[in-house]
# Entry
Amino acid sequence: MEFSKLAVYIISIISLIGFQVGLWGIFKKASKNPWLSLIPIYNFWIWLKVLSRPWWWMLLILFPFISIFMFYMMIWKTIRLFRKTSYIPLLFGTFFFFVYMPYLGFSKKEHYTKLADLSKFKKSKSREWGDAIIFAVAAAYIIRMFLIEFYQIPTSSMESSLMVGDFLAVSKTNYGARIPMTPIAFPFVHHTLPLTKTTKSYVEWVKLPYMKFPALQPIHRNDIVVFNYPDGDTVVLERQNESYYAIVREFETMFNPNSSFEEAKRVYYKYGDAYLSKYAGNYYPGKGRDVVWKEYHVVARPVDKRENYVKRCVALPGDTLQIIDKQLFINNEPANNPENIQYSYFVSDPLGSGIPKKKRKELDINEEDMQTVNDFTTLYCLNAEQKSKIEKMKKEITPIVDEATKYDNAIFPHDPRYKWNKDNFGPFVIPQKGVTVTLNDSTLVLYDKIIRNYEKNKLTVKEGKIYINDIEATTYTFKMDYYFMMGDNRHNSADSRFWGVVPEDHIVGKTLFVWLSLDKFKSWGEGKIRWNRMFKKIE
# Structure
């Protein structure tokens, strides 16, 4: 058993024992039968009677997620019955209830007082404001953690289905709210403290294993899902917007220009992070200029602190996925393409006038996706409606499609034996929990990251033989379900085609609706607010 998991189990057992011991002593002081503290659920009913709270609180206690807030609310009310009014005992009881409750229950210095006999605590204005702020922050934090969270779309990978500047409401409950894996963290921020570029917002000396509340529904094909970026397990702080593994491949190619990529991967697996830290740097390959280096800082991030991505789930565990000339196939059947699916096109105009900026704004063309090819040709990412309107402008439009035999090193599994690219991919069977696959030299490249990084096994290859946790293996059985995610802007989306499948423990939530949409390319006078997208349900 991993040390972190063992520590969690030990802390959980100590917390439960401390809570039960404390409740026994408090029941006894309140003239209740202490044995009742050992009966699950019913002990909370008796605890409410000790606190003189209404019966309907029990409904809130039994409600998922709200129960966490109610538990601490009852601890605070219990502390108040022992005539404690300052913030110090409240804070101590919040973080160390398993110690403080037994102290209140068995200390002869501490005396229980019925709520009716308790003198009214007159709060100062500052105390009233302090209590209100603490309550609001605690409630908002619990809602954000377990119920619903808001995200902003930063890139065009889902254009035009979701647009840059869309603010999304994301449900944590639909797929089952995940228990925080790094529970000690600065509230309301993700992985980096505000006003800093690299300072972590969390500590890792307390880690929880992957656990979640029951789901209201499974993930369906074509759901738009928020998840933690799988390639974000390791990050180069100076290049956080790029895949660490892509950077490694970049430098391996640069340092070993005459070696095969398979040889480069073996070097990486042998030296790992130390190799990148030793050799990596910003380089300027200008003609006649020496390479300029500076050290990079490489860090690992826990699952729940990796970047949040939003994509469409196009394939479920056990599905067979294939892309042929841009068309997605699932289980040998053509998949339904999203209504606003986008591809890249060369738009040429021999007269050189191109598409006027005013017209681009009218068509909602994302200008960040534009690439100038020459004086007469520009690359655009367009959906069917935009393409049709541009064709009516008498522009020459040429679709961009990678040939089936073209090998793209950036595409998963980054091995020349799999000549896949973003337009021709697979067939690939999505890993499913409990399913066993055969391991050999050619299949290992498909599953090595799953076995090593996601499912935390020791994986080595010696003399052509595969060893998992030092035991020779010819097969492997998956411990989790996996999902294949793609952006609707198919030619401008870093998705599962580039970095592989998404493990179930990386799933954050389901997108519900757009509550605000701001067009970064328009001023307020030009219609910056996209009113037609406000509170639009995401299908």
Observations:
- Residues 330-399 form one domain.
- Residues 267-294 have pLDDT under 50 and may be disordered.
- The chain is about 30% helix and 20% strand.
